[in-house]
């Protein structure tokens, strides 16, 4: 789930139960269709589609599903017009949340998101008050057994990465969004196993949580993630493992 550590999120995403996995695939299919409609079905010429396909690979989404979604977006049929929005939210206990949304009905989605947030004890924040607590960065996760620290450090810094962070489970490579693809390609070209790769929102300040506070914020994060129009959820909550 989005509120946990980056490693917990990767494990949750990859190990989702069948019901949850179906929901993930459905959302990814929607993202693919929108991206293909807007920019065409060739990922080499469509950056938005490339980014969605990175996520699909991390979720082990079958190629048949991906191809169907691309054809739906490029087939010339009637596809609803979607609008991209970002909701800035304050959860209970001072946790900041960003929710990225694609919707074909702004008013319906606004009402539903506001209801979810209010029922969970949170509030919709004023514009800019939450985004200032995050930085948009490329993030590449490499498991501990996937690389040697010194070799990986040299590789990613030469490729244009900003930082390589080490923890007991592996390596987190941080890049400027503009350099994300170049760094990712260099890593894969060297045969290094990548657990997850995306352009994401990283918090500049974290809020430690435990006990009931962690549970309350987790419930709100899960409610947002389950909403059909929500693509991504980011928070600055720091949860216990």
Describe the structure.
The protein has helices at about 5-15, 20-40, 45-60, 65-75, 105-120, 150-160, 180-190, 210-225, and strands at about 85-90, 95-105, 125, 135-145, 165, 170-175, 195-205, 205-210, 230-235, 235-240. The protein is of the alpha+beta class and about 240 residues long. The strands form three sheets. The protein has a four-stranded antiparallel β-sheet with strand order 3-1-2-9. Helix 2 runs antiparallel to helix 3. The radius of gyration is 18 Å and the shape is globular.
Distinctive features:
single chain, about 240 residues, alpha+beta, 4-stranded antiparallel sheet, 8 helices, globular
Please give a quick description of this structure.
The protein has helices at residues 6-14, 18-39, 47-58, 63-74, 106-119, 149-159, 180-189, 211-226; strands at 83-90, 96-103, 123-124, 134-143, 163-167, 170-175, 196-203, 207-208, 230-235, 237-238. It is globular.
Beta strand %: 15-25%
Determine the number of helices (DSSP H or I, runs of at least 4 residues).
Answer: 8
| Major pleated sheet | 4 strands, antiparallel
Quaternary form:
single chain
Gap between N and C termini: 12 Å
Strand order of the largest sheet: 3-1-2-9
List the uncertain runs.
none
Task: Present the secondary structure layout.
Layout: H1 6-14, H2 18-39, H3 47-58, H4 63-74, E1 83-90, E2 96-103, H5 106-119, E3 123-124, E4 134-143, H6 149-159, E5 163-167, E6 170-175, H7 180-189, E7 196-203, E8 207-208, H8 211-226, E9 230-235, E10 237-238
Parallel strand pairs: 8-10
Antiparallel strand pairs: 1-2, 1-3, 2-9, 4-6, 4-7, 5-6
